[in-house]
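Hi V.,

Quick status before I head out on leave. The structure for the redesign project is tokenized and pasted below; the design run finished overnight.
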């Protein structure tokens, strides 16, 4: 088993994304926007999204969102 996402949080509570025409990527979770990625980082993220592997996409979105849900966040 991989050490990344051992508890399966990305599978049960996945990130959503939207790519705009000008190359920005809006990342959201639970209907709330988490971050916006633009520029060179967005191009790299879009290339990872284009692979089609859902697990890899979720990991890339989690990394791009920064420290969001790093483990210390509380559920309401």
């Amino acid at each position: 088993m991989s050490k990344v996402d051992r508890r399966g949080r990305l599978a049960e509570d996945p990130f959503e994304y939207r790519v705009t025409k000008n190359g920005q990527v809006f990342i959201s979770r639970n209907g709330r926007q988490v971050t916006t990625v633009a520029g060179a980082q967005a191009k790299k993220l879009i290339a990872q999204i284009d692979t089609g592997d859902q697990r890899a996409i979720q990991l890339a979105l989690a990394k791009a969102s920064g420290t969001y849900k790093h483990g210390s966040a509380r559920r309401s």
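Above is the designed sequence. The longest strand covers residues 32-37.

G. will cover questions while I'm gone.

Best,
W.
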